[in-house]
Protein 1
Amino acid sequence: MIQTIKETIPYVDLAAEHVSIKDELLEAVKRVIEHGQFILGPEVEAFEKAFAQICGTNYAVGVNSGTDALILALKALGIGTGDEVITVPNSFIATTAAICLTGAQPKFVDVNEQGLMDPSLLEAQVNEKTKALLPVHLSGLPCDMNRIKAFCKKHKLFLIEDAAQAILAEYQGQRVGSFGDIGCFSLHPLKTLNACGDGGVLTFNNPELYEKILMLRNLGLKNRDQAILWSSNSRLDTMQAAILLVKLRYLAEWTEKRREHALAYNQSLNGIEGLKLPQEDPSCLGVYHTYVVRAARRDALQEYLEKQGIGSKIHYPIPIHLQEAAKDLGYKRGDFPVCEREAQNILSLPIYPDLKEEQREQICAAIREFYGEV
Ligand SMILES: Cc1ncc(COP(=O)(O)O)c(C=O)c1O
């Protein structure tokens, strides 16, 4: 009997992802080395223009990480000590860290079944100290922006979108990062548009914010010699901007491939007892930075997949309110039941443009096998 050899499928393979565009990337890097404007060179501005255009905002400012994008967004809106910012406990740690680093206090609300901010819980958290709302478009699925915007308007709160995982995602035909006062994106190597290193970007429409954010990312400097405020060095490297400009040309195609994989996973895994699939609101367009299933016996499933050479990850296994860093925020286990339950069930399956159809089928077959559905 001929046995088919099963392929090892990593959760992600960043080196492989770059093979087909390597020459273009090297050419872009070469141009930067030749012109020598390594700090805030022409590629940074060109990237910012292009990024603002894809988000549908007047401005985009490149910074050195998604974390700094969040910190600078909060600072640009004057948020700091004595203020409160409402966010969710199931995000990458950076969302809450950014709030704490400004001196403000994070206030959490629980999430819905898709892991997104539950707007019905917001009213109970708002008080006279609340200054802003910081929802997270987790996995690349947009939050309920109509309700979130209405809530911000009612209580006169700033709206900052953590769109780190959601470049090109749409809510009712509008791109995320364009709904609130400021959108914050990460260009980390694991993101859907990724630098070859760290990077981030802020998007917004207000011209006054533009001047301020330019200074905030560059030591508070108004020009070479005059500093207007205290700030740090958060600039996006010219080299990374050059790399990102190359990748931007492929972003729509890569995003479409991610969506194709997600829809194919949905079809292939539909109906398995013990497995819940991501639900995309029909008025939204998700970009599937991650493809997250809710799985009964999740740890056993992950182990089963691993034994077959299939990588998977958990985004995120420890809710932020239960992190050691959060011990002074006053929360305890049980405060956010949906988020805490999700942390036990969620599993992110491989999803990237280069994932082959056969590999995806192999993953689905292994999952069906695990649940005894063969
Ligand atoms: C939801 C979310 N917010 C913020 C960040 C922080 O971005 P960075 O790693 O670029 O600092 C990330 C990514 O890592 C993220 O996934």
Protein 2
Amino acid sequence: MITVHHLEHSRSQRILWLLEELQLPYEVVRYARDAKTLLAPASLKRVHPLGKSPVITDGEHTIAETGAIIEYLIAQADGALRPAPTSEAHWRYVYYLHYAEGSLMPLLVMKLVFSRLGQAPMPLPLRPLGRLIANGVGRQYLNPNIAEHLTFLDAELSRHPWFAGPDFSAADVMMSFPLQAAAGAGGLADYPRLAAFVSRIEARPAYERALERGGPFHLPGAS
Ligand SMILES: N[C@@H](CCC(=O)N[C@@H](CS)C(=O)NCC(=O)O)C(=O)O
């Protein structure tokens, strides 16, 4: 039986959702974040040494890293939600499976980290300097880069309704978390197709069933 070690308000939401889309049986072990640091509890390190979420166990297998877990689950479901290897959609699918965590998430995580610079627990006298650095990095590097990515992604969705092509695929599941995080961080008002994508995925019955299994899902800064 597949067990999802699910940290609240985290990337493991994607895994619960994919399992619901694939209609594979699974169980959930829930982990709460530390109220102060928002980090995962140490008990998650008993499942995988890095103690990050998501991680799944299935018999003798322990698999971490969202993209790897998605590949594992798609294999269990005989390739469902993966475009045929001979299709053009397949290479877009592979691209987005890597792109979401490899290119887009690092920018969004940096934005979150820098947004906390200049706040507690930084000593009070240093906070103005922290804010100055955070604003500078945001203005010079993070904001223009994030805008460039979101512009690219919005244009992609003008060509086809889903990231890999005409059909919903696991690439859309992979892309959900960064776009939900982007929505929370700065809003997607300038990117109507991305905003519509987030609304469309959150309305899917499987997405709603995943929320029932995993509990509420809110990202920092998200409304
Ligand atoms: N690239 C990894 C990132 C894993 C990751 O950083 N997960 C976050 C949750 S969204 C986490 O476990 N944070 C808690 C912590 O670092 O203690 C993946 O996609 O699985």
